[in-house]
TrEMBL record:
It comes from the Bacteria. This is GDP-mannose 4,6-dehydratase. Coiled coil: none annotated. InterPro entries: NAD(P)-bd_dom, NAD(P)-bd_dom_sf. It comes from Glycomyces lechevalierae.
Length: 326
């Protein structure tokens, strides 16, 4: 699903955010509410946090619902609430969990997406904006290749990546067959405030958490695997822009910068003022070796570009943790 040219901006209306009690979803819901959208949030709280629901309520988001997007409750909810835009972030998002339970991941990520697409069309929603994976869905960037563009082949290595690639195909089909505007944002490795390391495989959050607990950061594999790290504040602006424009299609949302796990852990240690002492563990299954995203389409069509560099983002996480414990 390639990018289409932007042709206008939509006034804030009603946006239903799935997975809105999760890390990215809670940030997106708050940002849309700040921008004047009437925001509804649905989450089954299997990985999302009640504290995020509480923060949304405190910010004036009143339409908070507990439901599983793969079941009938979410479809009924969309029918009653009738959003203008569905922002779909609910997912089973851990690669290791998908390897252990591929069928469950497919239900959550593929059936859940199709269930919501069907409900969105029936409810008269004009737009469907979904989170995809800029690492797992593409698979490993081949040696010598510069970056993955939206036209790159999808060669996932994990059930999670396959489920995201399949969901993207459903978005493309629904746009063509049912006429609903669909946008897929293929995200790099998202990090930042409120990232709960219990439900994430993010190396930054895990490293900070282990250092604060007096433990050494742990790296799975040799640490030469690379990622495209993007701050959650930049990701949130991409979702807001996708909701507010007529642009549709697939867009990579990253930085275009390839950073090894060894490099990012060294950066975390330096920012945290901790010794650069690392514990290495066996490589995880279905490990993607290289990730670097070509973000030219998002820059050109959405007018979006990242603003937060990696070191500044990590420093911001450290400072926020310091203020919370002061």
């Amino acid at each position: 699903m390639s990018a289409n040219t932007e042709s206008g901006a939509a006034a804030p209306g009603k946006a239903m955010v799935t997975g809105g009690a999760g890390f990215i979803g809670s940030h997106v819901a708050l940002r849309l509410a700040e921008a004047g959208w009437r925001v509804g949030v649905v989450d089954d709280l299997s990985a999302g946090a009640q504290a995020h629901f509480d923060a949304l309520a405190a910010a004036g988001v009143r339409d908070l619902f507990v439901a599983d997007v793969s079941g009938p409750e979410a479809a009924d909810l969309l029918s009653r609430w009738r959003p203008d835009v569905v922002v779909h972030l609910a997912a089973q998002s851990k690669v290791s969990t998908s390897v252990a339970s591929p069928a469950a991941g497919a239900v959550a990520n593929v059936v859940g997406t199709v269930n919501l697409l069907e409900a969105a069309v029936a409810a008269g929603a004009a737009k469907f904006v979904a989170a995809s994976s800029g690492g797992a869905a593409y698979g490993s960037l081949p040696p010598g290749a510069g970056s993955h563009s939206e036209r790159s082949a999808r060669l996932p290595l994990s059930p999670y990546g396959a489920s995201k690639a399949a969901a993207d195909l459903y978005l493309e089909m629904y746009a063509e067959t049912y006429g609903i505007s669909c946008t897929s944002l293929l995200l790099g490795n998202v990090y930042g405030d409120r990232l709960d390391r219990r439900y994430s495989s993010d190396v930054i959050a895990h490293s900070i958490g282990r250092i604060r607990a007096g433990e050494r950061p742990r790296i799975y594999g040799d640490g030469t695997q690379t990622r495209d790290f993007v701050h959650v504040s930049d990701v949130v602006e991409a979702f807001k822009t996708a909701c507010e424009t007529d642009a549709a299609g697939s867009f990579n949302i990253g930085t275009g910068v390839e950073t090894s796990v060894n490099e990012v852990v060294a950066m975390v240690c330096a920012v945290m003022g901790a010794p650069h002492e690392v514990e290495y563990a066996p490589e995880l299954p279905a490990e993607v070796r290289r990730v670097r995203l070509d973000i030219a389409a998002a820059e050109r069509v959405l007018g979006w570009r990242p603003k937060v560099d990696l070191e500044s983002g990590i420093r911001g996480m450290r400072e926020r943790l310091g203020s919370e414990t002061a």
